[in-house]
Design a protein that fits this description.
The protein is mainly α. It is built from nine helices and no strands.
Length: 303
Amino acid sequence: MASSLLALLDDIATILDDVALLTKVAAKKTSGVLGDDLALNAQQVTGVNADRELPVVWAVAKGSFINKAILVPAAIAISYFAPWLVTPLLMVGGAFLCFEGFEKLAHKLLHSKAEDKAHEEELLHALVDAKVDLVALEKDKIKGAIRTDFILSAEIIAITLGTVQNSGLSTQIAVLTSIAIVMTIGVYGLVAGIVKIDDAGLHLTMTYAVGSLKHNFGRGILWFAPYMMRALSIVGTAAMFLVGGGILTHGFPAIHHWVESITAGQNGIVSGLVSLGADAVTGIAAGALVLLLVNLLQKTAVK
């Protein structure tokens, strides 16, 4: 009896160790989505009154949990009943990541700063325009953010599923559930901090005397906040190309073997840089191709 109990505990410990390891690997692979996820969700709060920012973030977070409550069982069902679909879904997710990244680059290149500034002023005007229904505006922003989250969550779940597709069902359930919970809490906890960081800086500048350490720290926060948002957007875009390109590179044996042949015999740093470069080039090329196809389809549909 004792030996059976010890064997059971050993099996449980092994499963938990596998879950922890695979969850760590999945979290690393899905991290490329998070920079863009943080920037997008923080931007969704633009045009919302300061005292309503956290309730809006909480509403979107609840919607994100619902999204993942739909996606995780769907991913497990696909893995169990149609495992051959995992790789194609992963490739579609990688291509979509590249498309999103390239679309952001195209937007920066094709739209002037004046157009972007006019759009920001239009959003801020909603705060002072008495004719604008702020409740309806807030609900629209929440719905839009939840729709965006569904796409990003699907990417995260697809990448995670690709990581655990060769594991047992119980391990798949544990890893997918862990990633869903950790990513949602982590992302929206950080989003809440990001959207309130400027308020924290303003509070310090207004509460403490000019020239004091805390006042200057508050001014530093106010100066740093917009640069942080830009950095998040840049890092997120780069990560989308790297993660999406990496998925596609490994999905096409010809490209994967070509990269392996180049990196063969190289030291770890050079090999890693060449692999990252190949992933980035593949991601950018795939993003451009998908964007071109989408635009052609849109023009065809209009005609």
